[in-house]
Amino acid sequence: MKVQIRAIKLLLIVFLLSQSCSLVFSPSNSLDLSDFQELLDLPIASPTDEEINVQLEDPNKIIVYHGFACGQSDRSGTEDIIRLQGRLDVLPSYVNNATIILNGWNSNFLGTDHHIAAFGSGIVNINYDERENELTWDAFGAMSDKNFDDAYSWCYYYTVIAWNDNQVGVDVDQNDVGNLFYEQSSSSSSVMNLENEMEVFQGVPSGPVAILPRGYGVIKQNDDFHYLQYGYHLDAADDLTSPVVNWNSTFIFKDDDADDEFDVFEMVSAAGGTDVGVVKQSFELDKWDDDESGFEPVESAQSTYVVEEVPYEYAIPMLTGWDLYFPQDEHVQEAGIWIDNFTYELGPDKGPGTLTYNLSSVLKDKNNKPKHAMGHNITILGIKGVKSRDSPITVTGPRDNILVSAGTELFFDSSIKDGEGINDRELEWHSSIDGLLGRGKSIMATLSGPKEECNPPYVNHKITIKVRSDTNIEVSPINIKVGSECE
Q1: How far is Cα 5 from Cα 19, in angstroms, rounded to an integer?
Q2: Which residues lie below 8 Å from residue 46, measured CB to CB, with a gap of 6+?
Q3: Closest by alpha carbon to 123, among 163, 149, 87?
Q4: Which of 19, 71, 79, 224 has the most CB atoms around it within 10 Å of its CB?
Q5: In whole angstroms, how far apart are CA 467 and each of 64, 396, 416, 425, 470?
Q6: How far is CA 15 from the centre of its chain?
Q7: Are 379 and 280 in contact (CB under 8 A)?
C-alpha cells in the first residue's frame, strides 16, 4: 500500500534511527511537525566542496543558477545522514519568487568498495523569503550497506530558478507535506512502480503544471547485495493541469540474482501558471539481465547533448531519469549521475531555441573496473512559449490574455496557410482546464470560471490547437482568463 510521508520518516528511519545491524523500515501514516523538526535538528555538515554559477538571465524577468555542494560522514560506528544547508542571498532586486530542482547526485564510499543496501538524496524545507530576497533549503543524502557503518561522501547538484512574477507567469508548490511519495514492496521484484497523485496550489486551478524533481531513493529490505543496476524514471505527461496532477515513476534496483524486495521514495515540487510548459524526451527504463553481449559501456565520463527547436523563451533541463549498470554485478565504491551545466539560446526572431547541457556519470568498484553503461532522461521545463517557426496554423481570435466573465460564450477562430493540405475538421481546440472544446477551423465555446466567486478571482485557460493527422505541427497557444477583477 502506498504511503505518503515526509522526509523524516524516510530518511531518519531508513538511515539513522535504526541503531541495529540492519536497516529496517517502520513507515507510519501519521506525521507531525515534531517528526520533521527531528530531521532538521540533525547536525549541519560543513561542505567539502561547493560551487554555483549563473546559467541564464533575462534582466528584470528571470535568472537561473546551477550548482553543487558536497559533504561527508566519517564516524566511528553508525554514520550520519549528511545534511547540508543551502542559501542563495545574492538574488537580483527584481526577483520576488524562487524554487530549486534536484538535478543529480554522487555517492562515494571513502575507504573501499562494499555491497549496497540504499541510496538517497533529497531537498526539503525550501523557503523563499521575499523580504530578505533569499532562498534557503536543506539537502540530505546517504548511501549504505546493511550496517550503515562505512564512511562516505555525497554530493547533490541543483538548479535554482528565480523570477519576477509580474513579468513571468509562474507559481510554485514546494511544500514538504503531501509532496513525498513512498512505497514498500509487498513482493519480490527488481522493479517498483509509483502511481502518484497530488493536489497542488491548495486545490485552486492555475493552468498547466510541471513536476519538478527534488528527491529519490531506494533501500533493499533486510540485507544488502552486489550492485548490478539502479534506475529511475519520473514519467509525467506534458499536459498536466491543476488542481490535481497524476504521474508514474519507475525504480529498478538489483543484483544478478533472483528478484528481491526493496522500497522507494520520491519527492517533487510543482510549477504552474500561464507561462509554464514541458518538453518531454523519450526514455525506456528496462531491467539489465547480465547479458554481456548487449553491453555498451560509457566512453567518456562527461558527454554533451543538444536539444533543438525548444518552443520557449527560457528552457531548463531537469534530470528525470537514469539507468546506471555494470555488465555483471560488483561491489560498488562510487555511483552517481548529474547535470554539470547548460546553456540556452533563442533562435532567430525569438523563435524556438537550442538547449545544450553537459551530463556526467560514474559507477565503479575500488579498482575502477569494469566500465559502466548509462542511460538518462531529460524533461525540459519551458517558460513563456514562443511562436513556432513556419507554423501553418495561427489562432486569430480571441485575443491573447483577455479577461472575460464566467458564462461568456466565445468565438474561437484560426487561419490555415494555403497549400498545407490540412482539412478544417482535423483541427481540435483544447483548454488546459476544460479539455477538448470542439473541432473545426472555428468554434463557439464557453470556458469554466472559478468554482466560487472571487475565490480565486479568475482561472486561466491555455488554449491550444492540435491537428489529429499530424501531432508534430506546433501552434502558438493563447491564454484566456475567466472570472472578474475582484477587490
Answers
A1: 21
A2: 71
A3: 87
A4: 71
A5: 34, 16, 11, 9, 5
A6: 24
A7: yes
What is the chain's alpha carbon radius of gyration, rounded to the nearest angstrom?
24
Helix or strand or coil: residue 191? strand
CA 180 to chain CA mean position, Å = 12
Query: What's the pLDDT at 345?
Result: 95
- At which residue does the C-alpha cell 565503479 appear? 364
The predicted structure's pLDDT at residue 147? 84
Q: How far apart are CA 376 and CA 282, in angstroms?
A: 10
513525498: which residue's cell?
A: 180
Give which of 254, 335, 268 is closest to 298, Cα–Cα. 335
| Statement: the pTM of the whole predicted model exceeds 0.85 | no
Beta-sheet pairing, 180-183 with 118-129: unpaired
Number of Cβ within a 10 Å radius of residue 237: 14
pLDDT, one tens digit per residue, over 50-105 is 999 999 999 999 999 999 999 999 987 777 889 999 999 999 999 999 999 999 99
Query: Where does 91-208 show beta strands of DSSP type E?
Result: 97-109, 118-129, 134-144, 152-163, 171-173, 180-183, 191-199
95 alpha-carbon distance from chain centroid: 22
380 neighbors 210 (Cβ within 8 angstroms): no
Is the peptide bond prior to 456 cis by the omega test (within 30 degrees of 0)? yes
pLDDT in tens, 187-240: 677 888 888 888 888 766 667 899 999 999 998 877 888 899 999 999 998 888
The whole-angstrom separation of Cα 100 and Cα 97 is 11
Per DSSP, the residues of 347-372 read -GGG-SEEEEEEEEEEEE-TT--S--
CA atoms within 13 A on the CB side of 316: 30
* 93: amino acid identity, one letter: S
CA angle 318, 286, 210 (to 5 degrees): 25
Instruction: Provide the Cα torsion 110, 111, 116, 121; round to 10°.
Output: -10
Q: Are 335 and 79 in contact (CB under 8 A)?
A: no
Question: Cis bond leading into 370, ω under 30°?
Answer: yes
Please, are residues 155 and 70 in contact by the beta-carbon 8 Å criterion? Answer: yes
Residue 447 burial class via C-beta count within 10 angstroms: exposed 0-12, middle 13-18, buried 19 and up: buried
d(CA 449, CA 403): 11
